[in-house]
Amino acid sequence: MSSALVVFSGGQDSTTCLGWAKNRFDRVETLTFDYGQKHRVEIYQAKKIATLLDVENFVLKFDAFSQLADSALIDGSLDISSAHSHKPNLPASFVPNRNAVFFTLAHAYAQKKGIDNIITGINQTDYSGYPDCRLEFIEALELALNLGSESNIKFHYPLIHLSKAQTFEMSEQEGVLELIIDESHTCYNGNHNTKNEWGYGCGECPACILRAKGWQEYNKKH
Ligand SMILES: [Zn+2]
Asked: How much distance in Å is there from the Cα of 12 to the middle of ligand 1?
């Protein structure tokens, strides 16, 4: 029996990955991180989507980032749309080593649960400039984590080369488009009250702008 763990934030990308995984693996579970993010509504939405798709969801709580990171994703006083204070080439939402920590914890959780595959929604196409969303990084980390634990857990990243419009396309193919519009959360400002045709969000933060633009491109073809 094949098994997969989806690193699940409750956003558009990871919900698409969950649909993708459910159509390919016998047993699918989800792991959500509670790391003190401002947009905490995503944790609630992740739980809700997992319940609707009848998959197990585990919320792993850790507060190291809130003590370490100088990121607008965590610190409400920083402007989400500006450059990062220490790394001017990166956006303020960058959290140093976030994916390294997330995937390391997911890998440990997969070992504990006897799961052979980890699915992540990382994407290097129309991403926000995060260097830990690149293919080279995830491949290096996969190798390091398997070497360091004598395991052979395979990482999958079905969205790595897709645009947001193509991600909408894939979510339709995998049967989760409606769920993404109605339940997923991507907005950095934690706005889950304003419903747009592309889903909930403020419509102004970088995550909402990317999602709205992807929806428009996707819609042109339909
Ligand atoms: Zn927003």
From this structure: 13
